[in-house]
């Protein structure tokens, strides 16, 4: 069961446990977290999965951190993209550049619909996010770059199991990708919106 935690104010806080969390399904239980460091304090959460947070640092580096174990997974640089869209950091977000013959540049782009999934036992994970309506990218355990998913425009939710990515898109489209090779292969598609 996935726990959804909410941050609550704790007037009796001390420096060892700077924040208190609770899961609404466990009304009488509170969880105290340890100090996760200065970088955590300067970052902000863009998605959650159980006790794991997908964080973005102001310099736009992405990482995943477990609130209770302090375990951290650094993700590849946003610029390390494989596919037809290249990303560069700018002061106001990101700049996208298509690598097609009719090159286009899109400025002031931000990360959209970030979603991730992690296996609590093995720490296998997949992180997915979109940039505008141009691309959705993913990175999984042991990847050193982000790979673009073909024919996707936004993500609502994902599950990753045995090298298969089960993907629900914003348009209601359900896709299954095989991620066992160097490039993702779509192996199933169903449209729920008729």
TrEMBL record:
Domain KIB1-4 beta-propeller positions: 22-187
InterPro entries: F-box_BR-signaling (IPR050942), KIB1-4_b-propeller (IPR005174)
Segment forming the signal sequence: none
Source domain of life: Eukaryota
PANTHER family documented for this protein: F-BOX FAMILY PROTEIN-LIKE PROTEIN, OS07G0183000 PROTEIN-RELATED
Record's protein name: KIB1-4 beta-propeller domain-containing protein
UniProt source species: Brassica oleracea var. oleracea
Phylogenetic classification of the source organism: Eukaryota, Viridiplantae, Streptophyta, Embryophyta, Tracheophyta
């Amino acid at each position: 069961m996935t726990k959804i935690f909410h941050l609550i104010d704790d007037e009796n806080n001390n420096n060892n446990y700077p924040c208190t969390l609770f899961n609404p399904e466990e009304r009488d239980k509170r969880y105290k977290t340890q100090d996760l460091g200065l970088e955590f304090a300067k970052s902000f959460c863009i998605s959650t999965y159980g006790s794991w947070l997908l964080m973005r640092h102001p310099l736009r580096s992405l990482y995943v951190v477990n609130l209770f174990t302090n375990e951290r997974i650094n993700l590849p640089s946003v610029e390390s993209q494989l596919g037809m869209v290249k990303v560069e950091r700018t002061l106001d977000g990101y700049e996208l550049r298509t690598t097609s013959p009719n090159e286009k540049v899109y400025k002031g782009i931000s990360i959209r619909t970030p979603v991730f999934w992690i296996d609590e036992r093995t720490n296998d994970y997949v992180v997915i996010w979109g940039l505008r309506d141009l691309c959705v990218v993913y990175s999984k355990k042991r990847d050193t770059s982000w790979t673009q998913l073909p024919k996707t425009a936004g993500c609502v939710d994902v599950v990753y199991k045995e090298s298969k990515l089960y993907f629900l898109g914003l348009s209601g489209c359900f896709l299954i990708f095989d991620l066992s090779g160097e490039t993702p292969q779509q192996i199933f598609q169903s449209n729920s919106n008729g």
